[in-house]
Specification:
252 residues, mainly alpha, two-stranded antiparallel ribbon, 10 helices, 63% helix, disordered N terminus
C-alpha cells in the first residue's frame, strides 16, 4: 500500500524539491517528508502524541525501523520528541528549527497563514537590503550576469508561475552575489519560503509584473556598484511587498 500523501492547497505554489533535502528520496525520505508535512501542516498539532508505531507502520506501509529513523530525523529538527511509556509527541513551534529548509518547505507546501507571511516579510526586510548593498561591492561579472538573466526571465514571463520562478531566481542570485559564506547558504534556506510569499503577492496583484521596474532599479544599483542605492531600492521594494500583503490580509 503506498504512502497516503497529505493533500496540498492547489492555490499554494509547489515547493521546489531542491529546497527540501528529503523530497524525492526513496522510502526513508518519503516517510520523513510525509510526517514532516503532517506536523508542519497541523494535522498533528503541538502537544499531540502520534499514533502508535503499529498503526503508523500499517498506514504508511513501512517497517518499524524506517519509521523510527524518520522520527529521529524529525526529532533532530525539533519537531518531535520521544518519551518512554508515553510515545512520540509533537513539540511546540518555539522549539522547531524554523530556518531548517525542510521545515520551511513543509510549511509552505501545506499552506501559509497571515502571521507566517508577516514573519517571512520581516525576515526579508532584515536580510535582503543589506545583502543587495554587499552584492553591489562584492559581485563578480558572472554573478551580475546571473542577476541579469533572472531579470530577463521576469521580463519575458508569460504566466504567474514563470514570474514567481524568475523572481525567486533574482533574489537568490543577489544573495549569492554577496560572496559571504554565511549569507550564501541562506539562499537555499529561505528559497522555498520566498516562493510561497512571492506566489501570494503575485496572485494578489492586478498585474503580476508591476514590481518589474523596482527589480530593474535594484539591478542597476548593483551593476553600477552603488551599495547605498542598492540597499535603498531593495528596502523600498520589500516595503511595497509588505503593504500589498497587509492589504491582502485585510480584504481576505
Amino acid at each position: 500500500m503506498p504512502i497516503r500523501m497529505t493533500p496540498v492547497d492547489p492555490k499554494t505554489p509547489p515547493t521546489p524539491a531542491s529546497h527540501a533535502r528529503y523530497s524525492g528520496r526513496k522510502l526513508h525520505g518519503q516517510v520523513v517528508d510525509e510526517l514532516g508535512r503532517r506536523v508542519a501542516g497541523g494535522i498533528y498539532p503541538a502537544g499531540q502524541v502520534l499514533p502508535n508505531e503499529e498503526l503508523l507502520c500499517q498506514e504508511l506501509a513501512v517497517s518499524r525501523t524506517a519509521l523510527r529513523e524518520a522520527v529521529k530525523v524529525l526529532a533532530g529538527k525539533g519537531l518531535l520528541e520521544a518519551r518512554p511509556r508515553i510515545g512520540t509527541r509533537v513539540r511546540s513551534k518555539d522549539q522547531w528549527n524554523l530556518l531548517d529548509p525542510d521545515i520551511l518547505a513543509w510549511r509552505c507546501a501545506t499552506g501559509v497563514d497571515a502571521e507566517f507571511l508577516r514573519h517571512l516579510t520581516e525576515l526579508r526586510e532584515i536580510i535582503e537590503p543589506s545583502a543587495a548593498a554587499l552584492a553591489a561591492t562584492s559581485r563578480s561579472e558572472e554573478q551580475l550576469q546571473a542577476i541579469a538573466q533572472a531579470l530577463r526571465s521576469m521580463e519575458s514571463a508569460a504566466s504567474i508561475t514563470d514570474w514567481v520562478q524568475a523572481d525567486l531566481a533574482f533574489h537568490t542570485a543577489v544573495l549569492q552575489a554577496t560572496n559571504n559564506p554565511l549569507l550564501m547558504p541562506l539562499a537555499a534556506i529561505i528559497g522555498s519560503a520566498l516562493e510561497s510569499l512571492l506566489g501570494v503577492t503575485a496572485r494578489t496583484s492586478d498585474n503580476f509584473k508591476q514590481a518589474l521596474p523596482d527589480h530593474q532599479k535594484v539591478f542597476e544599483a548593483i551593476r553600477l556598484q552603488e551599495p547605498q542605492n542598492a540597499l535603498h531600492r531593495m528596502a523600498s521594494m520589500l516595503s511595497d511587498t509588505r503593504s500589498l500583503i497587509r492589504t491582502t490580509i485585510q480584504t481576505s
